Amino acid sequence: MAESPLYAAHEKLGATFTDFGGWTMPLKYGNELDEHRAVRGAAGLFDLSHMGEVDVTGPEAAGAAMTAVAEELKRDNTATGYQASLKALAAVNTEDNKRAVWDEIVAGELGNRDLESKLAGLAFVGSDELLPSAEFFDVAEKIWSAQSNEIALTTVTGLFPRWDVSQETLDRADEFLSRDLAGGLRRAVTEQRDRLARALRNRAVDRG
């Protein structure tokens, strides 16, 4: 497992470690109740150094990012490391990459873990403008009918265009739901549609 840059400091303080998303992170330093009281009565610190993000820009950015992911996978060639690499590669923010990942997911040939990792990378922060929106409503029924219930539910939920918080997307969802749909598909899209509607209402409140 990977170690935080502050690993030595945690170890010196007597930390008990645990696996946290493939990282060796401190779980506690002593008595949990004493630590709880210390945080409630004073303050607490949490090591977030393993959660850093790197922005790579320029004409060779995509290639550099993919090379970096490949090198990291060589260093951490575990199941966790592999899933992290799928997410990172899917997050590479180019139009061609997002289209390739989208098409691969729609094709329905991924296992559940690989699917979840690629979905997380596909919709990673900053991808909004490169992701399809209306296209979801053209492929959702095909996805639902061609895949197993679990894979179909994960795919439909993950590809619903939650990144496009707009009245247009809400209208498309309502039009889609007016069709004669399978019950499970209707429930999945309705849940996502309702979340989108709440997001729109919240934005309206924020604007005053």
Helix content: 55-70%
Name the average pLDDT.
91
Strand order of the largest sheet: 1-3-2
Radius of gyration: 21 Å
Q: Looking at the structure, what is the overall shape?
A: globular
| Largest sheet properties | 3 strands, mixed
The SSE string, one letter per element, is EHEEHHHHHHHHH
Pick out the low-confidence regions.
none
Distance between the termini: 48 Å
Query: What's the tally of helices?
Result: 10
Beta-strand percentage range: 5-15%
Structural class, by secondary structure, is: mainly alpha
Compute the number of strand runs: 3
Write a structural description.
The protein has helices spanning 7-12, 32-41, 61-75, 79-91, 95-107, 112-122, 136-146, 149-159, 167-177, 183-207; strands at 2-3, 16-20, 23-28. 61% of the residues lie in helices and 6% in strands. It has a 3-stranded mixed beta sheet. By secondary structure, the chain is mainly alpha-helical. A hairpin with a 2-residue loop joins strand 2 (16-20) and strand 3 (23-28).
